[in-house]
Amino acid sequence: MVAGPRYAALIASLPASVPFVGPEVQERRQGGSFRARLGANESIFGPSPAVREAITRAAADVWMYGDSEALALRSAIAEQTGTTLDNIVLGEGIDGLLGTLVRLLIDPGDPVVTSLGAYPTFGYHVRAAGGVLHNVPYRADREDLTALCAKAWETRTKLVYLSNPDNPMGSWHDGAAILAMLDRLPPDCLLLLDEAYLDLAPDGTSPDVAADDPRLIRMRTFSKAHGLAGLRIGYALAAPDLIRAFDKIRNHFGVGRLVQAAALAALTDTDWLAHVRSETQIARARLGQIADENGFVALPSATNFVTMDCGRDGDFARKVLAEVMQQGVFIRMPAVAPLDRCIRVSVGPKADLDIFAAALKDALARL
Amino acid sequence: MVAGPRYAALIASLPASVPFVGPEVQERRQGGSFRARLGANESIFGPSPAVREAITRAAADVWMYGDSEALALRSAIAEQTGTTLDNIVLGEGIDGLLGTLVRLLIDPGDPVVTSLGAYPTFGYHVRAAGGVLHNVPYRADREDLTALCAKAWETRTKLVYLSNPDNPMGSWHDGAAILAMLDRLPPDCLLLLDEAYLDLAPDGTSPDVAADDPRLIRMRTFSKAHGLAGLRIGYALAAPDLIRAFDKIRNHFGVGRLVQAAALAALTDTDWLAHVRSETQIARARLGQIADENGFVALPSATNFVTMDCGRDGDFARKVLAEVMQQGVFIRMPAVAPLDRCIRVSVGPKADLDIFAAALKDALARL
């Protein structure tokens, strides 16, 4: 008899789910390359020239494992964020950090609180740890801080997830509102604040809370404004006890040497970040104009994408999306009602947005 | 009251352990750079020139997430290994794949079988999943296949770990012996075969078993012969059911775009691999000569390192290692008796081995 492996109890109950169908997978399904890639909130403005140089320089050294403590990069992050080395852990993108954090806190059956329609990969990791998701609806296209707090008390959850600025709506709360939320949450509940888009948000969007505060962990990434999505690196800021706990289970050499070098170059090129912020504002305005011209409403955005209310229901927005995709233009949309009345378009250079504008016009003409 | 996070039950019981103290961490502790880096079994011969070109080319594209299905790379692996796409999953080095596999199989309290002194990172991941390690001693400096089988039946384990060729001893079994072991294991026990060093081993070291066989999973890496340790990429070959199970919990975008491109370039540059194999043989011979000259015995090696029996006990070998390290030469040694009568030295170019030879001679003169 050949029986094959016996899986862990939890694993046997999980579907083999993929939280996101990647752009290349979609291209293969469609049978052609995208003419514009505006669906994954990547930074089409590219990485900084300094990053490209750092990568080329690092190419000869890839035979060496990376520094498992990533001292140079973590020191630079500490300096830029006004924290200490003990407040910082790196990971394979925020996705990797989310998976590790969930495993640190969640036992099978534990409740976890998030917003209905928020980042699917967070929910994926919660299910992989056996956690039970409790979702709170958005209110006026923003995550509802009051409802999240109420649900946290009701479930006595260990963990609340909030993205600020938010994906997929592009909305945000100011730091003072987050701080007030923190004071209203149960004191033994950890607030996981996903700040992936913070570099593109107004000043004051991050709460003014000491990194040593044990109630909060912030996660940030080099995948968005810094343009390093293809390298997979992010970091978490939290109290030293929680940061040390990552060392119990994380892949210690998971963030490689070349990636550390590239992220350090990105972090120190503040001119490039200013350039990307400026280009992002121009592109948001252009996307607002395109929405207008087609009878859609562009929602305010503190991110590198603009979510457009198509003015009808989810079925209509799905048709719009399908027609735009049909023309080789990659965009996405929120998954659940009522958010799914919208489509979501990443910012990018004028040429890419012009392709989208033409595709949207054609799509609506056909519908 | 500010309480801070509540950890999962298992996590609270784990130490914040680091399975390996990295070279940079050791350099900082010693207060200086290593003159020769011969302790981490990296490929000092470097990556192929084609890899360096691929990395430079990929630098402009790092703003894009990698293909989550890694179709181009997995297709090349399938072709080279005579398997299909359904047999292959990529991960952030073998370390990353080990962690995911252990989580797929092991419930808290489950027994796991390995050799006493084998790869510490495997044990680290087992503890992180709540598994209980059952260790079998080496026999004549090789992992003991018969004893591993007996322990598997005794514990009715779900999982046996075997590295072949072996780290830290450099020894190996031929593929026929592994195949015979597979037939003697409980049929519902998975054999995890870590083939990190396979590229440097004699032909026939890997068992001739179909990739669809549900009793076996093989893990391979680009960190050793291919010289990509600093990029973190490895892959697993197994039956489609098991490969699909990885999709339940893995970080789907964890292996980035640039890393995929570099690994593809490495895989297709078979000339470079032949060069590294040839240099490795020369270096092994040189290390054998150095051992001889100092009254040590070089053990036979099918890897990119040579383990040298210092001829006395662990305390003596630890003194040798400390004296060599004192001179800025990074080497390592096995952690447990009786293997710890040895030191372990990675292969490398002549200049590096000459530095080691001089350091060893000085070390022994002082002892």
Give a verbal description of the structure.
Two copies of one chain form a homodimer. Helix content of chain A is 41%, strand content 14%. By secondary structure, chain A is an alpha/beta fold. The model of chain A has no long low-confidence stretch (mean pLDDT 96). In chain A, helix 4 runs parallel beside helix 10. Chain A folds into two domains: 122 residues, Alpha-Beta Complex (Aspartate Aminotransferase, domain 1); 220 residues, Aspartate Aminotransferase, domain 2 (3-Layer(aba) Sandwich), CATH 3.40.640.10. Chains A and B meet through helix 1, helix 2, helix 3, helix 5 and helix 9 of A and helix 1, helix 2, helix 3, helix 5 and helix 9 of B.
Structure keywords:
homodimer; 367 residues; alpha/beta; Aspartate Aminotransferase, domain 1; Aspartate Aminotransferase, domain 2; 2 domains; five-stranded mixed beta sheet; three-stranded antiparallel beta sheet; 14% strand; globular
What's the layout of helices and strands?
The structure is a homodimer of 367-residue chains.
Chain A: H1 9-12, H2 23-30, E1 36-37, H3 49-58, H4 71-81, E2 88-91, H5 93-105, E3 111-115, H6 120-128, E4 132-136, H7 145-155, E5 159-163, H8 175-184, E6 190-194, E7 216-221, E8 234-237, H9 240-246, H10 257-268, H11 270-293, E9 297-298, E10 305-309, H12 314-326, E11 329-330, E12 342-346, H13 350-366
Parallel strand pairs in A: 1-11, 3-4, 5-6, 6-7
Antiparallel strand pairs in A: 2-8, 7-8, 9-10, 10-12
Helix pairs in contact in A: 3-10, 4-10, 5-6, 12-13
